[in-house]
Structure formats: C-alpha cells, structure tokens
Amino acid sequence: MKSDNMNTIDNAADVERGLAAITDWNKSSNSPQAAAGLWRMALEQVAPATANSAPFWQRRVGPSWVFVAASLFIVMLITVALLPAMGKARASSRSSVARGVAESAAPAALAPSDVWRGAEGRSLNRQGTAAGLLAGLPENKGDATAPPAAISPDRFVIRKATLDLTSGQVRSTFSKAGMAINEALGEYIETSSLTGEGSTAAATITLRVTSSRLSEVLNQLRLLGTVTAEAASGQDVTDAVVDLEARIRNEQRIERELLALVDKRPDAPLKDLMEIRAQLAAVRGLIESLSGQRERIGRLVSLATVLVTIRAADGPKPVVEKAEGISEYFLTSIESAWSSALHALADTTAFLIRVVVGGIVWWILAILGTAMVWKLYRRAMSTLAAEPAPVG
Amino acid sequence: MPETASQPPPRTPVLAADEQLIARFARGDTAALGELAERYELNLLGLAAGLLSGHHQLAQDAVQESWLRVIKHAGAFAGRSSFRTWMYRIVINRCRDLRDASPELKWPPVVAPVSTAAGSESPLRLVTSADNDDDVRTAVQALAPHTRLLLLLCYHRGLTHLQAADVMGIPVGTLKSRLAAALAELRTALQSTQAINAGRKVGTV
Which residues of B touch A387 (CB under 8 A)? Predict the structure, then answer.
C-alpha cells in the first residue's frame, strides 16, 4: 500500500526509505541502547505501582479513602449529636400527647359537681375556690354575673409524703398517728390497716392533711417512733388549673351569650328556642364537667397525702454480711467484672444500633454522596486518562 | 494395536495483549510495564525524534514524560481505545508540547553521521542513500506540521495505516486521501531541496 502511494514520486523507494529512516531510532541515534529504560526512570520518578503492590498498611492513603473516612465520621457525629435531641423531642411530644389524652378523658370520668350551679344563674368564684380549697375552708360561692377573678400567682402543687417508722408499740403508735389529723379543717384518714401482733405487728395509715399543715403533721408523726425512711414529692398542676379555669370562663361566656339571645327574642319560634336550649344544656354540661375536674384538682392540692408505715422495733433484723475471704472476694470481683462487661457489651451494642439505625437516613445520604463523588472522580480520571487525538 | 504417540504441537508463547499488560501494571505488576516498553519504546523514540526534527534529547524527554503519564493514569485507563493508540497519542501530544515550548527547535536539527561499519552495502551506495535520506529529511521539515505528522506516522515502522488512522482519530479512507496530498507536497518540497543541493554542489565545484 505504501509503495502504491509512492508511484507518482521519482525515486519512490528512496523517498519511502528516507521517511522510514527519519523515525527509525536505531538509525538516527548514535547510541540507540542508551535510551532504553526510559520507562524505568519514569517509574522510579513516581513509583505508584510500588505503592499499589505494597501491603495495605504501607500504602499511601488516597484522597478517596480520606473522603470516605471523613464522610463516615461526619455521619457518626451527626447521628450522635442529633439522636438525643430527637429523643427529647419524642419524649416531649409523647408526654404532651399523654397529657392531652388524660385531660380530655378526665371530664368524662368525673361526676358532675353539685357545687356549681351555672344553669341556675349562680357561679363559682374560682379564685375563692382555689384559695378556699388550699386553706381547707368551705368554698366561696359568688354571683354568675361577677367577672372572673384574677388567677392566683401561687403555684398549685399536689404534695405526697411517705414515712416509715419502727415502734415498740405498733398498735399505740397506729392510734396516735390517726389522731394527728384535724377534722375541723377537713382532714381525714383515707385508709388504715393493722396486721399481726407483737414483733410481727405492722400497720399502714394514709392521712389527708391540709397542705399548709404537712410539715407540722410530719413532725408530730416523727415523734411517734424511730424514722427508718422518709420521702416527699410534689406535682405541679398549675398549668392544668390555669387551663381548666380558662376553659370554664370561655364556656360561661358562651352560656351568657345564649341566655342573652333568648332574652332578646321572647317571641322566637319554638324550634329556635329548643335548639338554643339544647346548646345551653351542652354548654352547661361541659361547665359542670370542667368545674368538677377543677374541684378535684383543688382538693388534691389543698389536702396533702401522708402514707405512714409502722413496724415493730423488735422485728426481724436485717442480715449482716459476714467478712468475706480472699476466694469469695475473688469470685465476687469476677462476677462483678463479668456483669460489668456484659453491661458494657450491651451498651456498646445499643450504641451501635442507635448510630446505625437512628442515623439510617444520614447513612443513606452519605453512601449516595460518596457513590456520586466516586463516580465523578472516576469519570474525571477517565477523562484525564483519555488522550485526545493529535491535531495538526 | 500399537498406540500412535500423538505429540502435541509445540506451544508458541502467547503474548499478552497490551490492555492485559496495562491492567496488570495497574494492579502493581511493574514487569508488565517493562513488557510494554519492550514493545513500544524504541518505536516511540524514533517517532518522537522524527517529530522533534531529530533532537534526540528532546525525544527522550517526550517519551519519558509519556511513560510518566501512562504510569499516573494506568488505573484509569478505560480501554476506550487500544493501548497502542493511547500511547502514540500521548507521545505525539507531548512532542507537540515540547516543540511549542522548546527554543532549541529553532536551530538546525542534529543529524547523526552515516555509519559505515555495519551492513553489506557498498560505501558509495551508503553515501548515496544517506544523501537521499538527508534530502527527504530536509523536505519533511519544510512541510506543515500536520502534513509532517501524517507522513511520519504512515511511514513509521510501528504502525499500519489502519492503526495510524486510529491514532489520528480519522477514518482510514480519509487518511489515505490526505496521505496522497501529503506525498504530493513532499515531492514538491523534495524537488526544491534537490535543486538547492545541486546548486550548492555546482557552486562548490
């Protein structure tokens, strides 16, 4: 083929040979072998193959591996940082949902109170009620037309206390504990029980005492025997009270509007009057329910609960641990270490599950991102590797 | 019945394909690169020397830089072209870069003296052929770069026309038509070169 092309040229063979000689390294170079091994010199210059063939612990860490490691680390950080916050949010929403359910279920569970008579035009002065209940006094009933009193800035707290006593005379102490209440203030014994005799005698008594007298009653009870355990707690229900009172005021306003509507139109059709009456009945029922709920909370706030447990002083003694020998100490230590190790293993597993499952969205995003970047990187490298055809 | 000992034909060593060798090198087998170099290095040096007007040092630089590029991107070699095509393109592009960047190419090329030690041809024939080679070399240098590249590629002993067309990225038919035109240009350049040389000889006599 090459000869065919040279037919039109004088001395075609010489020209062909001359062209071939130009690119013949052996003919044109003085020392053809001196150039051999350029590939080896290039290899020594960069030596990537050496790095590739080396064991993995001797290999250079490439940018892709650094990127993958950084991605994993960031995802783990995000997961660990976000999970507690998400847990709190879940707990918060769960508690608010539970509170909402309880509040909505409460009116149905409570019987309508006979203290408040909104349908008869009389209303309860809520400020008076709260104060009265807190003080253990009879509630103050006011006029329905009176404006609602301002909400007390005081906190509404349901208080509970438990007291464990030992006494040589259980029966006598039980009786004295029952006498700590003041019935004139509305205090009473909620439950009481006395079992056994002598050293096996035991008694429990639940007192409902005025909140303001809780400390005084506890002091009296402590003098009745030896205190072995004591605990107290308080539940703040201010928010619930405020909410209930607001809802009651709203329903009362609706009731007043409905009554005013009836008064303005005495000659209204019977059908309309019946409809308004039905709505009035519903509103009043709701007011009754809310008032009962409010009254119940007020009762719980005004009267603290004190649970007293009395046991005989000469009852069964607690077992005193004997001094253990070195072998027992060794076994105990091993057992303790084993238990701790299992707990640590469980905690670690839980943490891993938390990170893996909790951060599944981040993991997926990281994997997708890594895959995308890797693909782009490979494409870029491939483009770099592809040498363009020579032009000109 | 006597057994006829059927001797298996002697196995000729099967050469690994270039693409297999570059893949082996990418996995860390440096010997594979040595095999590739054994196949191509001298041919590439010759081509580079031709493209760089006979500057052997620059040709060696071009080929060494090409090997560097091959080593660097061996792992990313996707096989969209043959290794030969890839390698030749790298060398040609490096030569072009060096030619653009090297002021040395403005000076006359260094031409090796004619060796009379080897070969069976008579000294007179060798001198005549060397004169012809020099004329061709001078005429080629006078051509445009793309024409020079086409001629050197097509008459380079390492490539067929099909492979040369692959390196150039053009169909083989296009290559042939361009080659015919290039040879016509070369003939013109060669005639003028020979005329100049003849004038010099007359002048010296």
Answer: 69, 86, 89-90, 93
Query: Where does A226-338 show beta strands of DSSP type E?
Result: 226-236, 303-312
Chain B neighbors of A389, CB-CB under 8 A: 89, 167-170
DSSP string over B82-145: -HHHHHHHHHHHHHHHHHHH-GGGGSPPP-PPPP-SSSSS-HHHHHHHHHHHHHHHHHHHTS-H
B46–A28 C-beta distance less than 8 A: yes
Measure in Å the smallest separation between the Cα of A59 and chain B Cα atoms. 12
Give every CB contact of residue A144 below 8 A, 6+ residues apart in sequence.
Answer: A118, A121, A122, A123, A252, A256
B52: left (phi over 0), alpha (psi -120 to 50) or beta: alpha
Treating both helix axes as pointing N-terminal to C-terminal, what angle do B172-204 and B123-141 enclose, rounded to 10 degrees?
120
Interface-testing mutation among B29, B56, B175, with chain A (most A C-beta atoms within 10 A): B56
Residue B139, pLDDT above cutoff 90: no
Contact A357, A86 (CB under 8 A): no
Q: Tell me how many residue pairs between chain A and chain B have CB atoms under 8 A apart.
A: 194
Q: Which range (A134-138, A223-227, B164-168) has the least confidence?
A: A134-138
Contact of B63 with chain A, judged by CB distance below 8 Å, is answered with: yes
- Shortest distance between the Cα of B25 and any Cα of chain A, in A, equals 7
Please provide residue B118's backbone torsions phi and psi, each rounded to the nearest 5 degrees: -105, 165
Chain B (142-181) residues lying within 8 Å, Cβ to Cβ, of chain A: 145-146, 149, 151-152, 154-157, 161, 167-170, 176, 179-180
Distance CA A132, CA A138 (A): 6
Residue A240 and residue A103: Cα distance in Å, rounded? Answer: 8
Neighbour count for residue A35 (Cβ, 10 Å): 22
How many H helices and E strands in chain B?
8, 0
Question: Of the candidates A198, A233, A195, which has an alpha carbon nearest to the alpha carbon of residue A309?
Answer: A195
Which residue from A minimizes the CA distance to B74? A385
pLDDT tens sequence across A308-365:
999 888 766 555 556 678 888 899 899 999 999 999 999 999 999 988 888 888 889 9
Strand-strand pairing, A188-195 and A202-210:
antiparallel
Q: What is the DSSP letter of B120?
A: S
User: Which SS3 state, helix, strand or coil, does residue B146 take?
Assistant: helix
- Using a CB-CB cut-off of 8 Å, the residues of chain B touching A21 are 133, 136-137
**DSSP 8-state secondary structure symbol assigned to residue A120:** G
Decide if B60 and A28 are in contact by the 8 Å CB cutoff. no
Q: Are A236 and A135 in contact (CB under 8 A)?
A: no
DSSP H helices in A8-62: 12-22, 25-28, 38-46, 48-53
Q: Of B72, B92, B111, which is closest to A46 when you measure between CB atoms? A: B72
Task: Write down the pTM of the prediction.
Answer: 0.45
Q: Are A211 and A301 in contact (CB under 8 A)?
A: yes
In chain B, residues with a C-beta closer than 8 Å to the C-beta of A27 are 112
